[in-house]
Design a protein that fits this description.
This protein is an alpha/beta fold and about 425 residues long. The chain is built from 15 helices and 16 strands. The chain has a five-stranded parallel β-sheet. A five-stranded parallel β-sheet has the order 6-14-7-8-9. Helix 3 (about 30-40) packs across helix 6 (about 85-100). The chain is globular.
Length: about 425
Amino acid sequence: MGNHIVEEAKRCMQCKNPKCKQGCPVNTSIPEVIQLLLDSEIKQAGEILFNNNPLSVICSLVCPHENQCEGNCILGIKGSPVQISSIEHYISNYYLNSSSIDKNKRLNKKVAIIGSGPAGITIAFMLSLKGYDVTIFEAHDKIGGVLRYGIPEFRLPKIILDKLKDKLIELGVKIRPNTLIGPVINIDTLNRDGYEAIFIGTGVWNPNTLNIKGESLGHVHYAIDYLKNPSVYDLGEKVCVIGAGNVAMDVARTAIRRGCKDVYIMYRKDICDMSATNYEIEYAKIDGVKFETFKTPIEFVDEGVKYIRTKKIEDESGNITFVTMEESEDIFRADSIIVAVSQGPKSNIVSTSKGINLNKYGLVITDSLGRTTRDGVFASGDVVTGAKTVVEAVNVSKKVAMAIDEYIMKKYEK
């Protein structure tokens, strides 16, 4: 065990009203877990973390901790907060590697899970632990969804996902890779074959476009496609990333690691207006990413990005707007351009199934417990909310798993 883990754990003040727990979207019992670690009860600590959040080992790496647990640590008011994320990851990783997970007696009731991202994995664990016969249908060759194909290796080592897969198989979960639900197998097929409930957790894989001229040029790419397999792209030496979120930072930092010499992020506002967390922005700077702010792309050309300058205007009431500056067009020269302005859902499932309503953005409509407008079909995660954090998907999916269990039990009571 690294000394810093022990030292950080000893810094915890064991607050009676822990703000760190309140700041966690899944209300992780942080002081209790830390104390168990110090008391040499690491397996019990790991069990508590896993039962509360099956993706604790992942959330400890990718959560915006500065806005959640660590951002609410009382020690952070005048100094540095306890590095809760490091402690949680150590405990969760230890538990994942050294403990077997006990499950309830098999119920002989089938549940289909479409998509193996954060939501799908969470529900697969929770329902298989209850004894359900769970089958995961994954369109890609490996499980993980956005965790595997949307988060770079340097932020989330993929060996962790492989270990989670082993645990799922240990629990009896069946996995069908390279199986896109919709074209061949659809919701009606799953109902016919005896699945008592169906969960949709397919995420958002269609890149949003800027709808400007030149987006089909050969040196223009989309972030979600690039992150799936960066090694197949030849971006050249100078890259321009369009966007301001965490995905844009991931793309820029990945491009640098892939050998691109000059990587820039272009944004129509200022750095302080970016949706990416301060943590991600600072790490991008450390990695050598440069920022081109107050520039709005208006066209992609062979030479790079044609843009127009913008400026910030504040009125007497303090309202801020960004306006374009006349006659300020110019070209930012780049070998490649990557558009990172979020994603939307694909329609392969809903286009082949009746009764599943969508909102105007193409996202699946559900109630607070993940029930869609079709009986027995549930959904959560990004396909319902749009792109959100991993822990937010886990938080809702825990409730959805309980709703699926209740739905099946009530069906058999009748």
